[in-house]
Design brief:
It is built from six helices and nine strands; from the N terminus they run E-E-E-H-E-E-H-E-H-E-E-H-H-E-H. It is α/β, with parallel strands linked by helices. The protein has one domain: Spore Coat Polysaccharide Biosynthesis Protein SpsA, Chain A (Alpha-Beta Complex), CATH 3.90.550.10. Helix 2 packs across helix 4.
Length: 203
């Protein structure tokens, strides 16, 4: 795939209810959490868009732009549509957006490259990653041609990525990891953060 056709989007607009504060801003090792994913993907794209509703800190780069959800409380689907609206409003030429969560410190560039290598863009308008029988709906590649369907779904009240993706059709790209390695490990709670600190030391 041509990366210049893709806008990278980090979805950081969640309320982090289970964590108790904005988890994207917590310190893990020498970096804040959101900077782990940004550091892995920044060299692959001409621009990265962060969708966040509160002021946040992040990796200093002219490539990184910031926008808010066009409407709060719509979950990840709302963040995806917000990114698509940003593309249209700023008259960008991107045909796809590649989405990432802000709380996965062990996801690496090599996993993303493998994802793209396995994709045939003629097979679907939506692709998700999958590992250990779990589909990772925030690690996705979304065609801009889904804009109208997504907007209509959100107006109708659909909020669940899982259900909407199944309804419109999605292709999953499977990853096989040995030794229970899990680059999709995400920090949802304070306990997860402590586990991430242990994993970081062993990485």
């Amino acid at each position: 795939m041509e990366h210049n056709n893709i806008l990278a989007v980090v979805l950081a607009g969640g309320k982090s209810k289970r964590f108790g504060s904005d988890k994207s801003q917590v310190k893990l090792g020498k970096k804040i959490l959101i900077d782990y994913i940004l550091g892995e993907i920044i060299d692959l794209y001409s621009e990265i868009l962060i969708v966040a509703n509160e002021p946040i800190n992040f990796l200093n780069s002219d490539k990184i732009k910031l926008t808010k959800d066009y409407e709060k409380g719509l979950g990840p689907l709302g963040g995806v549509l917000s990114a698509m609206k940003w593309i249209k409003e700023n008259k960008k030429n991107y045909k796809w957006i590649s989405t990432f969560p802000a709380d996965t410190p062990f996801f690496k560039k090599k996993h993303l490259q493998k994802f793209y290598e396995k994709i045939d863009i003629h097979e679907s308008y939506l692709f998700f990653m999958k590992s250990h029988e779990t589909r990772h709906n925030i690690f996705g590649l979304w065609s801009l041609s889904l804009f109208d369907k997504l907007e209509k779904a959100l107006i109708k009240g659909d909020r669940k990525v899982e259900f909407w993706a199944n309804e419109i059709g999605v292709k999953t790209i499977n990853f096989d990891f040995k030794n229970n390695d899990d680059p999709f490990f995400n920090v949802n709670t304070k306990e997860d953060l402590e586990n991430a600190k242990k994993l970081l030391k062993n990485d």
